[in-house]
Amino acid sequence: MLELGMTIDGQSVLGSKTFDVFNPATGELVGRAPNATLDDLNRAVAAAKAAFPAWAALPDAERQARCAALVKAIEANADEIAHTLTLEQGKPLNGMGSRFELGGAMAWTGHTASLELPVKVLQDNNEGRVELHRKAIGVVGSITPWNWPVMIAIWHIVPALRAGNTVVIKPSPFTPLSTLQVVAAMAATLPAGVLNVVTSDDTLDNIGAAMSSHPDIGKIVFTGSCATGARVMKSAADTMKRLTLELGGNDAGIVLPDCDPEEIAEKLFWGAFINNGQTCAAMKRLYVHDDIHDAVCDALVAYARTVKMGNGLDEASVLGPIANKMQFDKVSELVADAVQSGNVLLGGAPDEGLFFPITLVSDLPDDAPLIHEEQFGPALPIIRFTDVEEAIKAANASENGLGGSIWSKDIEKAKALALRLECGTAWINSHGGLNPVAPFGGAKMSGIGREFGEEGLFENTEIQVLHI
Hints:
By secondary structure, the chain is of the alpha/beta class. It folds into 2 domains: 2-247 and 446-467, Aldehyde Dehydrogenase, Chain A, domain 1 (3-Layer(aba) Sandwich); 251-435, Aldehyde Dehydrogenase, Chain A, domain 2, CATH 3.40.309.10. 38% of the residues lie in helices and 23% in strands. It has helices spanning 38-57, 60-68, 70-76, 78-89, 98-114, 149-162, 176-187, 207-213, 226-236, 261-273, 293-304, 325-341, 369-372, 388-396, 411-418, 453-458; strands spanning 2-3, 6-8, 11-13, 18-22, 29-34, 120-125, 128-136, 139-143, 166-170, 195-197, 219-223, 242-246, 251-255, 283-289, 343-346, 359-362, 379-385, 400-401, 403-407, 425-428, 443-444, 447-448, 461-467. The strands form 6 sheets. Strands 15-16-17-14-13-19-20 form a 7-stranded mixed beta sheet, with helices on both faces. Strands 10-9-8-11-12-22 form a 6-stranded mixed beta sheet, sandwiched between helices. β11 (219-223), α9 (226-236) and β12 form a beta-alpha-beta unit. The longest helix is centred in the first third of the chain and has 20 residues, at 38-57. The radius of gyration is 23 Å and the shape is globular. The chain starts with a strand and ends with a strand. The mean pLDDT is 97.
């Protein structure tokens, strides 16, 4: 059983109390994490604040090199962290599971470390010179979810550090252990206080709320639900914090009649069911033209039957359980309603424990909750359409706007339709793939700001304009 400490000012801190972390595949106790108090948080923020001036003052090339060295720190501990991740989150070691997540974390770290923060010359003539400089904000607070806990921690931490900020991160209480491990590995290569982690189940003090209102935290980066994101935004208002909020999605995929169902079935499946559907940018609604609707349904069912679900420690498992009881209950409720009103093509009834079978449901009424609410689990509604204009209208009817996709052999037509989707990212003939060079974030209720690439790095800076 794991008992890990928080990292505060370069030291491992156990805390006065702990909370339990369980394996969703077996229900067994995986380990215990420190249950931070407000005093613990204040110590972490004070350490980050004290470390900030020296870290921000480093020559840019040196800070870039220090960030690049984090890749080796993660790599040296990757096997251990992946194993812990599988135990606490449930995803398999293989496929697009824990080892895939650690590989992605290293790739994002390396690319983000390589980014530049050049001075931009806005004017240079006989009237004078005007320069745009990007400067670090200060202490960045990071609050991360349970679905991709290591990857998303990296998405928050590394651009903040690269820009010259210091960081205090709070992971989800469902998956704190892998974050404690990856932060400890990274912090060991950095000056004390530059990177800190506090863990809490918020039963002692509401650490997340305290972070978003803390006067010494200059920015909050939050990934999670729309409702919680709105609370973070309200709490941050009094201190005028900078914010990056990557919130929920209800992504739609639209399949045009020129597609070959057999050719696209595998990509459609993984667009919806990567990480067991527990991904913000997974496809949550699938609109299929009437001409090929039934054939696409048949192809999806056939492919889904080949995907093995089981304990993530089994090397043969491709999908694992739903990560926690809270999410399992939500998926169960949405599917139970869909079973009553739609045509269940596969699955539909919960398995033992937190395992929920891959579920495909067609012919649902337009107002079905499974269509309009983000299920965040292994269930997909398939909606028949005859007019592509109606499909676009339905896709855009959601209050969310994270991602969307168009599926067609006619790339130019697909591109024109994709640009009409009201979402931050659109894909053609795929769904959900992310790239460290491509900015990512949502429209409408799916958040504000962008992560990744140059734009994501810049969100961790303040602009100062210099007139000479």
